[in-house]
Amino acid sequence: MDFIKYEGLGNDFIVVDAAGPNALTPSDAQRLCDRHFGVGADGVLLVSRGQSEHSRATMTVLNADGSRPEMCGNGLRCVALHLAQLDGAQHTRYCVDTDAGPRECEVVRKDSAAEVTISMGQAQPLGALQATYEGRAYEFHRVSTGNPHTITFDAELDVQAIDRFAAEISAGVAGGSNVEFVRQKGPQSFQAVIWERGVGRTLACGTGACALAAAAVEQGRAKLGDPLSIELPGGVLVVTVVAPGLSTVMRGPAREVFRGSAAS
Description:
Blueprint: E1 2-8, E2 11-17, H1 26-33, E3 43-48, E4 57-63, H2 73-87, E5 91-97, E6 103-110, E7 113-122, E8 124-133, E9 136-144, E10 148-153, H3 159-171, E11 178-186, E12 189-196, E13 200-202, H4 206-218, E14 227-232, E15 235-242, E16 247-261
Parallel strand pairs: 2-3, 4-5, 10-11, 12-14
Antiparallel strand pairs: 1-2, 1-16, 3-4, 5-6, 6-7, 7-16, 8-9, 9-10, 11-12, 12-13, 14-15, 15-16
């Protein structure tokens, strides 16, 4: 099986051109993503024929544990770059189908890297959640951006505490949730630690960056229309929350890392 390894702010993926969304099983994904006995990645992205009328392709995401999330913003940037490379395009636009619906992408490519802008759809606030860790109460804001996210601002916790607390939060949400711990650095600047269901703590999460931007606007921490700098461990994404509602637009990099083939 031929594959190409891509990364978006350190969130790394094995991209496979596939016959359909079910071309690989959850156990296949687990084997491929294993960083000691496989290729190593946060997830596998299957690229198959588009399903909606104007789409260029369909992206199916399999996490490192074999679970299938609805969307992956960093993964979609990688898939958009992959399509541009297949088409020999330098500056192009695509519609890509996902389990969260079609998404519009603009790719500006230079060789094997690109800056990709994605219309990520409307964020859906899901209400507040209260949780306690080591005797202290924290308020979280639940937001769906295709994937479910649970976000708290200004919680001063180290990464070991975040790993434990985030797992507890996710386990208490039906279907699980990604969890973001966010610190506001300025009117248009936020820093986040990302914990993803099915993966654990990661270097970046595109849907998480969009969710925290929407939560910041909803909480009055940021303004509609302002480009927000979201600093993640792997680098910076720029997210703009626009009307109507809490529609989000994300811009960030993607890069090919290497090509290879894996035993079936």
